[in-house]
Input
Amino acid sequence: MRVLVVEDERDMADAIVRGLRRKGMAVDVAYDGLQGHEMAYVTRYDVVVLDRDLPGMHGDEICAALVESGTLTRVLMLTASSSVDDKVEGLELGADDYLAKPFDFKELVARVQALGRRATPVAPPVLTAGDLVLDQSRRVATRSGAPLELTNKEFCVLEELLKAKGGVVSSEELLDRVWDANTDPFTTTVRVTINTLRKKLGDPPLVETVVGAGYRIAEPVVAS
Output
């Protein structure tokens, strides 16, 4: 899941970013409204965690612009304005959810995850390919019943490949969906992650390389 945090209180913004990354999300951050508005249009995020009272460009303007663009990005307004009227106003602007400061981080994570599921085409909570099973909600993966010890990035790459249902996913798409804006687009990190994922998945091989296109999950051939 790709998330953008737009928050001018740097300590809070950085704490949210660290916490969401620990949950396996790819998270970028903007510390003012103009930067946040630009980033939200350059990259297609699943969720934007958006402070309302921002310097440069007000959060309300960013929210309204995102809604008008027709993007699938979901907006969670995170603000100190906690009255009922403030919440109603935020939701009427097109925000998908509204969380007042101070907040419980567990609640923030749950709300971001719920919005992320609504930002992409609906996928079943459990993804499978042959004897490979990936449970998105519990964030566990098994093969032939044995648990797989995957890093957050390996889990997310596998998740994206399984969601494609046998379709090819390019390295660029994986970079966009799994890594954040700090990742060098010319890095070999996708190839390295794919290689370590292949080793952990074992035999028969599941991840195929489609030369010049990307990667896909192939149903394993079972010997008769």
Remarks:
- The CA atoms of residues 132 and 143 lie 4 Å apart.
